[in-house]
Amino acid sequence: MGDLANKLGTLVEDLVYPSLPRIIRDTLGREILDLGVRRKRRLADGRVKEFDAVAVTADLVGLNSTKATLISTDVDWFVADIAAFREFLPEYGALPVVGILATLAVDESVLNDAEKAGFLVLAVGDEVMEVKNRPGFEPKRW
């Protein structure tokens, strides 16, 4: 059961990552210079922290947390994650951080909580998937 839950989490993350450059460009007007996924850092004292995605632009960092099901407590925990980000990845200390919460579907009350906290919220929409077949490919009619 635990393996299945972990796979669902990484599946949702895999849906989010390809969209981050477009979303950051469209919503924040920035181009990503570096996109790190599942960034893990160990401090000298042995503490370890993993960040789902870190999208670095010239003048800000988009910090993403992805949940299969986003709940209000995740919003509160993400505030703590942003504080931890500064400690675990101090090389970005001079850049402001934009928090980006992502999920499959978001309940309106959770969206309200996330907006009050100042976070961008992503969920499945029209542009998650795209056709990858070669140009001119004609699907078989069954």
CATH class: Alpha Beta
Spans where pLDDT lies below 50 across 5 or more residues: none
Could you describe the largest sheet, including whether it forms a barrel?
A: 5 strands, mixed
- Strand content of the residues, in percent? 15-25%
Distance between the termini: 37 Å
Please state the overall shape, judged from the principal axes of the Cα atoms.
globular
Number of helices in the DSSP assignment:
4
Class of secondary structure makeup: alpha/beta
| Domains, number | 1
| Mean pLDDT across every amino acid position | 87
Order of helices and strands: HHEEEHEHE
User: How many extended strands?
Assistant: 5
CATH architecture: 3-Layer(aba) Sandwich
Brief summary:
With 142 residues, this protein is α/β, with parallel strands linked by helices. The chain has helices at 2-16, 20-28, 72-88, 108-117, and strands at 34-42, 48-56, 61-66, 97-102, 120-122.
Q: How does this model look, in words?
A:
- The protein is of the alpha/beta class and 142 residues long.
- It has one domain (2-122): Trna Endonuclease, Chain: A, domain 1, CATH 3.40.1350.
- 36% of the residues lie in helices and 23% in strands.
- It is built from 4 helices and 5 strands.
- The chain has helices at residues 2-16, 20-28, 72-88, 108-117; strands at residues 34-42, 48-56, 61-66, 97-102, 120-122.
- The protein has a 5-stranded mixed beta sheet with strand order 1-2-3-4-5.
- A hairpin with a 4-residue loop joins β2 (48-56) and β3 (61-66).
- α3 (72-88) runs parallel beside α4 (108-117).
- The longest helix has 17 residues, at 72-88.
- It starts with a helix and ends in a 20-residue tail after the last strand.
